[in-house]
Amino acid sequence: MNPSITGKPLQLKQLRIRDSFWSSYIHRVRDVVVPYQWEALNDRIAGAEPSHAIKNLKITAGLEQGEFHGMVFQDSDVAKWLEAVGYLLENESDPELERVADELIEIIAAAQMDDGYLNTYFTIKEPNQRWTNLAECHELYCAGHWIEAGVAYYQGTGKRKLLDVCCKLADCIDQTFGPEPGKMIGYDGHQEVELALVKLYRATSNEKYLKLSQFFIDVRGQEPNFYQEQFKQRNGSVHFPFLDIASNLSYSQAHLPVRLQETAEGHAVRAVYMYTAMADIALETGDEELLTACRRLWSNIVEKRMYITGSIGSMAHGESFTLDYDLPNDSAYAETCASIGLILFAQRMLQIEPRSEYADVLERALYNTVISGMSQDGKRFFYVNPLEVWPDACEHNHTFSHVKPQRQEWFGCACCPPNIARLLASLNRYVFTVQGRTLYTHLYVGGDLNAELDGRQLMWKTESDLPWKGEVRFEYIGQSADEFTMALRIPDWCEGASVKINGETVSIEGSIVDGYARLTREWQQGDRIELSLPMTVKRMKAHPSVRAAAGKTALQRGPIVYCAEEADNGADLHLLSLSGGKEFEARFEPELLGGVVTITTTGMRKKQADWDGRLYHVDKPAEEIPAALKFIPYYAWANRGRGEMAVWIKE
Amino acid sequence: MNPSITGKPLQLKQLRIRDSFWSSYIHRVRDVVVPYQWEALNDRIAGAEPSHAIKNLKITAGLEQGEFHGMVFQDSDVAKWLEAVGYLLENESDPELERVADELIEIIAAAQMDDGYLNTYFTIKEPNQRWTNLAECHELYCAGHWIEAGVAYYQGTGKRKLLDVCCKLADCIDQTFGPEPGKMIGYDGHQEVELALVKLYRATSNEKYLKLSQFFIDVRGQEPNFYQEQFKQRNGSVHFPFLDIASNLSYSQAHLPVRLQETAEGHAVRAVYMYTAMADIALETGDEELLTACRRLWSNIVEKRMYITGSIGSMAHGESFTLDYDLPNDSAYAETCASIGLILFAQRMLQIEPRSEYADVLERALYNTVISGMSQDGKRFFYVNPLEVWPDACEHNHTFSHVKPQRQEWFGCACCPPNIARLLASLNRYVFTVQGRTLYTHLYVGGDLNAELDGRQLMWKTESDLPWKGEVRFEYIGQSADEFTMALRIPDWCEGASVKINGETVSIEGSIVDGYARLTREWQQGDRIELSLPMTVKRMKAHPSVRAAAGKTALQRGPIVYCAEEADNGADLHLLSLSGGKEFEARFEPELLGGVVTITTTGMRKKQADWDGRLYHVDKPAEEIPAALKFIPYYAWANRGRGEMAVWIKE
Q1: Are A567 and A641 in contact (CB under 8 A)?
Q2: From the candidates A492, A538, A553, A616, which should be mutated to test the interface with B, based on the most B CB atoms within 10 A?
Q3: pTM, to two decimals
Q4: What is the rounded end-to-end Cα distance, in angstroms, of chain A?
Q5: Residue contact A551–B322, C-beta within 8 A
Q6: Taking 70 as the threshold, does the pLDDT of residue B4 lie above it?
Q7: Residue A8 has pLDDT above 90, yes or no
Q8: d(Cα A29, Cα A85) in Å, to the nearest integer?
Q9: CB within 8 A of B270, min separation 6: which ones?
Q10: For A303, which of B551, B554, B613 is closest by C-beta distance?
Q11: Which of A17, A74, A310, A428 holds its CA 20 to 30 A away from the CA of A176?
């Protein structure tokens, strides 16, 4: 597919990031996370749960002997790693990494069956049971990740080997599934192949992949239910007995045809991956009904089912959405992968219609939950991202046993770490889109944009002081003058944004459309835009229907949501309260947590007076004393040992 | 064993209850609950889960054909029912009920094996696996309930048949377990037989039963661990895989020898049944070390691990205690049976040392959690007793799926309904104890005490206006004058208690010892004591370490803890707050919920202003408007349809 500036907005990825904040993350992915995960996939991390994922591939390829180990979807960890490698190689050459990846791709190719089928679990363990338990066994999910890897690696290196494997795999799937007589009318328990097939269509221009994705989207939730039919055909055998997937259809968003779904239900990652694919298809086909469903589901999430940190999925059971305004802080699931999926969904919606609300949520999830998922050293990860932690309760009350007070080295189900890696490695895809004569900036990330579309030079150098200061500078570096519109997002956290062009203040009032300040002129090489986004500490409140935040406040400054940690405030954070009207001091501390702006203020701390061993007491007056309170960015919590943490503080 | 007034306090059960509050409960047990449960045990309740318990006995007795169905401990439901029948027959003859019970006892006797073994699960289903999985399979637990039933039925009717069955069963157990060579050194996963054996010892004066109980208590938690040894012998087979009982030793209080246990751990019912037996043994043997352990565990519960409603067990997983001050209101387990067990423990401690703190807790659990467990019509029951309910969340968030917003007809695991029945049917055993020349009144329950001990007439008529008014009248109805001390408990909820004797005020200041006002005189027939216990509405606070109650208040009046229900206050109870300094009106409403005192006041309700679809908002001022708030007794909640409920309200 040839890029062109048409009526449709287009993602621009020709950005080389050089950012005061994000470059260190991307370097960490390249220098630490990707190498570390390679060791993990090869079972070479002492003390971490072995992955066995590479070994499964080698066994399938006939290169080693042994049994399959790991989750039924273990392959996807390798695929996500390889996808991240593709993005890294696109941004910067690394011959050694490319050599390792090429060798891996040879193994993958050897593990593929002659008919294109590629799945280590079924090939090793249940070769006669292919496609018999789509609800639980994730064959299409894994296929989707292989395809995303194949496309990314092709785009990053120009090498077709893995892409060809993926086309052969997609062809195998196309021969197996579809509305035509003799094919299965089914779909995977974990959506992923749908969005991957759209990528494959875009990479190959082969419309059959788009059609196959449409088929999977539209057949989901039709009656009779496919999962239940397969369940009967298997005589009721199940892979994950506790999930009850054949009767709990909303877990996999199979309770209704997707176009009829009103609320975000079930497993949060599956849901947002599906909405992402729906948006992809709506973009490609102009399907208004599908777009309406996307907008409705988006609104349900961001207006009723999303934490202030941009995380989603309120309960551990089924890693799922629950109900409107049910956002418990301490028993939250808030999976890292789910926020990544929400970012994918937001990115696709921005490609359809540039409205800042999508980018606001994207930014919220990115700066808070996604990077919270990784430790400062890039070697430990959160799967679950609670907004309140009492470590003793996590250890002694099973309600909180999924909440880990500290990041873990690796997981038996290691979906999140490679997902963080592939998102950060491809961050340049989330910053700009272009539509017609307008270049949209969704995120303020420093770097050089160097795109030419239809002879037009979309070339800008960006310097950003985010997230600690709201100053952003753009310089047009195209050689030829060109008239077009720079559309700069005015974030939801900002009041009083101002713009200077070549040093002169330009009024942006009246120029803001859908949350973007539109600056139209004939840009000359060297033209400079200075965007100023004032950042103050905001006392954030949740909608009154959010029970878990009733009477409480969270602090936010710029895109960063803050939290109180025991390391700064002592234990028993529930005894603290913010005092009304008090000033906040925001101060950059270069030595703390890699350099962060902290917020301090004077609040109150309830005294734990002597209760004479009584648990309940008549009208005991609550004595309070002033206390210095300190808040750090939420994403940086749990880097200073085990302790309490809270985002929402009593007012 | 002949009752006698010695140095030890003695439970007095010669009380015929005629009480304005409790008589209706006891009648309901007799007229509704016991007949209803008989139908349930015989699988004749349409729409309720079948019990199969009687059928299991008939199959075991060879009277019917079929398979075992139900929980491994299904027998205990029958035993608890029969125990309740024993108490009812002791208080009032009922030839038809006695005939039904006698017929059942014939079946039970026929179901007993020649060697005394009695357990339908193992006899029908795994006859060769007796005693191979004590940790999970509850053979001794069921035996304990048979024994309690046998003793109660013997005491209630004078009939020995079931008692003889129980002695034969206990002898079988004694031949199987013990320190002697060739016997098993083991103990049950669910404590119960220990306290039952003390009852059997008291009923038969056969010391071997006391010794066997001591053995079970002292062998628990010794190394090598018995459960783990049996687990190995079974090659790792388990009955309840999710409990992981062979490694989670504290679940069954088998993590340490009982004398070394410092905190209340594990399954709450098991724990308090065990502490009850420990207290029984301490009472019988004067074992000071065991008594010290009882006092320590009691303090840990009531000072750190008990809800204000007298319920215990903070989490559903394992129906267990968690950690100090962890008392979540919405995800509480707070099992009805656990509060009954806490009452048993308190009763035993009162027999050892009359201290009002035991009776305060006993009263709290009784008036709140225990009777909350049963609907107004006696046909529906709570197993779990939360302190806060959002019904939508119970249905959509698995964290709360154990919490039922409405009472259920019956349960597959139906431990609680018959437990409520047997407790209420034996309520006369919880009111008085006697020690030396002192008659202690622990609960204020109307009725006629008619005891003669060592020629002394402990004969009093009591009229009580509790729980709605704190007025209690005693009249000495003994024919012979006698000098002794009436020790009247001054409840923890009361300030300014006063006493009149024969119409004249008597100062009780200075006469209060361990929470009991001591009135010593030579009592003459017709002497009257009027005890006045002022009841005001109390704003109760929880210890600051209780996170779930931080910044909140619960209302209590007399022994009754109150709650707000949606039926009176509308939905979204989290938006309500109590205003400081406002007056409360307490008013008896005879038509409401069987006649209750309600509390009304003016508080505030936060307005759910228009948030324009936003979930988070900068410093949105919280608008509040005055609201009429109404509170009902906690025990009466969920009798007016599905709705929200909250005990703790923001201040």
Answers
A1: yes
A2: A616
A3: 0.94
A4: 55
A5: no
A6: no
A7: no
A8: 10
A9: B189, B190, B191, B251, B252, B253
A10: B613
A11: A74
